[in-house]
Amino acid sequence: MPSTRDIRRRIKSVKNTAQITKAMQMVASSKMRRAQLAALAGRPYALLMNDVLAEVSAGAGDFSHPLMEVREIKKRAVILLTTDKGLCGALNANLLREAARFDKETTVFICAGRKGSQFVARTKRSLAAEFTYKDTPLFSEARAISKFAQDLFLKREVDHVDVLYTNFINTLTQKPESHTLLPLGDIKALDADLTAEGKTDLQTRGKEFLFEPNPGTVFGNLLPHYLNYQMYQFLHEAKASEQSARMVAMKNATDNAQQIIKDLTLEYNKLRQANITKELLEITTAQMALG
């Protein structure tokens, strides 16, 4: 049975832990708000780009682009967006469980975040490149990741590129999802993924498009930018998910620490009362023995 001194020491230790988790909760809460606003603000533009590409490609006639080439999948690249740090609940575990489903022999990983590269090294998978991104992702960071994936695809080193990231649903819910980045395939079908909220009236206009100088030049510049922005949005979604999961995890840790402190305090008081009662009984017994 622990002594009162042991319980006091444990209460002090748990209080110190609770102070740390509370501070981390407050930091994550401030970062979470900014990350969530950035992720939500970028969604309308990403949806509109899908709609524009679908409509413009319909007026481009018989058009093809190297980034649209659909090939037999012999080698696959997966862009894995994880966090640099832990203490964010099951966020990374859920994401890496999905990453483990890809065939080790035919898949190479492009990692953004140290947790992803550690997973690849630990499971002895193939790592093509490792990137970092800040708490507020920069477009240049997204462009570097996207450009590397495009180069692998255009050089025919891989036949398919997926992005594995955590999609931000709300503060309490983050869902690991896989999205096909390359090949773009039939752009006319891109708008099938649009939500009703993100739809525009582009397809109801029925206008004829004229391209200057030609459709190849226009799409040659538009498609890379589309891929770069898609990656930029994925980074924002991943960062919003990370900060939300960390805030919730630290709040749960703080609440659990407070509950442990209450339980230990109750146990301490009971033990202290038992010791007092025991001492009183000893004094009374000794007094009665002396007559």
Examine the secondary-structure arrangement and name the CATH architecture of the largest domain.
3-Layer(aba) Sandwich
Helix content: 55-70%
Strand count, sense and barrel status of the largest sheet are: 5 strands, mixed
First-residue to last-residue Cα separation: 35 Å
Shape category? elongated
CATH class of the largest domain: Alpha Beta
Mean pLDDT: 84
Gyration radius from CA atoms, angstroms: 28 Å
Structural class: alpha/beta
Structure annotation, total helices: 5
CATH superfamily of the largest domain, by name, is: ATP synthase, F1 complex, gamma subunit
* Element string (H = helix, E = strand): HEHEHEHEEH
Record the strand order, biggest sheet.
3-2-1-4-5
Count of the domains: 2
Report the portion of residues in β strands.
Answer: 5-15%
- Unreliable residue stretches: 188-204
Number of DSSP-assigned strands? 5
CATH fold label of the largest domain: Pyruvate Kinase, Chain: A, domain 1
Topology overview:
Layout: H1 4-58, E1 76-81, H2 91-99, E2 107-112, H3 114-122, E3 126-131, H4 139-154, E4 160-168, E5 174-182, H5 215-290
Parallel strand pairs: 1-2, 1-4, 2-3
Antiparallel strand pairs: 4-5
Helix pairs in contact: 1-5, 4-5
In short:
Helix content is 57%, strand content 12%. With 291 residues, the chain is α/β, with parallel strands linked by helices.
What does this structure look like?
The chain is α/β, with parallel strands linked by helices and 291 residues long. The protein has two domains: 4-25 and 248-290, ATP synthase, gamma subunit, helix hairpin domain (Helix Hairpins), CATH 1.10.287.80; 34-246, ATP synthase, F1 complex, gamma subunit (Pyruvate Kinase, Chain: A, domain 1, 3-Layer(aba) Sandwich), CATH 3.40.1380.10. The chain has five helices and five strands, in the order αβαβαβαββα. The protein has helices at 4-58, 91-99, 114-122, 139-154, 215-290; strands at residues 76-81, 107-112, 126-131, 160-168, 174-182. Strands 3-2-1-4-5 form a five-stranded mixed sheet, sandwiched between helices. β1 (76-81), α2 and β2 (107-112) form a beta-alpha-beta unit. The longest helix is centred in the C-terminal third of the chain and has 76 residues, at 215-290. The two termini are 35 Å apart. Mean pLDDT is 84; it is low at 188-204.
